[in-house]
Predict the 3D structure of the following.
Amino acid sequence: MGSKKNNLKRASMSDYIAYAAYRFVEIILQILPLELVCIIGAILGQLAYYVMPERRSIVIRNLRITYGDQLSSAGIKSLARKTFRYSGSNLFASIPASAMSKEELANRVQVEGIDNLRKASHRDKGCIMLLAHMGNWEILTQIKVLIPEMKSTASLYRPLNSPLLDDLVKRRRQKNGTQLFSRKDGFNKPIALLKSKGFLGVIADQHAGYHGIAIPFFGKMTSMTSLPALLHRKTGAPILPVSMITTGLGTWKVIFHPSIKTSESEKKTAYLITARCANAYEQIMSESPADVLWMHRYWKVIRDNPLRICGNQKKKTGIEKPSKQVALKPFNILIYLGDTPANQPEISTLIDRLKHYRTDVALTIVGSSPEHACASFTIKASPGEPPHLLTNAIVQQDLSQNTPFDCAFELSRNNDGGILHKAGLPHIFALHGKYQNSNKGRTMGNNPNLSPSQFLDNLGLPIN
């Protein structure tokens, strides 16, 4: 009670308003048939696709990176719309799902792969359940109800910003005996639970920033948390991938996959175990891509150093492949030079520096003289042509690639970078000039004496 009272004291007026609104919506949704709740959620999710352009852009970008070599542009957009529908449906359904009876859960949730769960739990150790942001994951907090043999269960969670809603969610999730461990409280309790043969759910598919490990995910480098690997090495508990997919209106399927196999040599490094976890995520997320919450930024670009991979603990520059069999998808950079020739000595050195900083870099150079040995593709800007023609050419080049541009460098001294902004490129880094949308571009200053090499130095790109 003391903890709850402390939370109530910290609650602001806006927290009380949000809590009241949530409880009102919750009462309405619990009255309605669950199938109707799912339909309402799907309709609102479809509406969100059209009224939330930034989130739509993130989802389409993620899907292009993941499935751009398998689906057409129309196919990607169709899957994006389906993703929004599923996300809305599962979000709304999660509210009444948190109060379902055991009988209703059993009728609505099918469980597969229990033998894999039993094999993992029969090793006289606990079990790390590798979960993803997919499906109605609120039901996973009640998995103990569906599988009584899971006597001791817990999950790691991030406390909600609203203390009132946080208290409510914790009470709901703990009502069936599932423990909740905040990552802010350290890992002594999760480790103790695993050593006592408990089951610990860990959602580890989000971008982990500087605290993660640089790893290929769907073939493109990102940062992934090494937490499952560290828990595995500390306790010896097997890592069991778990997926949840939508099978119909108000019905889902939970699948326990075989535990991740790691050799004795792989167990010595968190890097290689994390690579195995990434492979497992690729498999379970590909079972039902529309169920995945693609609204997360799985592949981020750092503002201070756009070529640096967050969490790269192997070395501060470059990247490492976990094996020779991994074919990395490119990190696509567009360089806009304007009237400056690409073979001009300082520019040529800069381009070479960018190309060889990472092994996955692919350069597209745009300008009146864009030819350069390091360029994967060039777009020639003809003098006097209307700017929209060049903008269209850049957009077409972006769409023709299996994966979109990751960032752009505007090095023209004529301040022509508005072309890149109009082309909708993300993370525009300009040598000179300012953009109206500060989220789209970053200016290193209007110093006319700033050289391109100094520009890269200011972005934190060291010379190899």
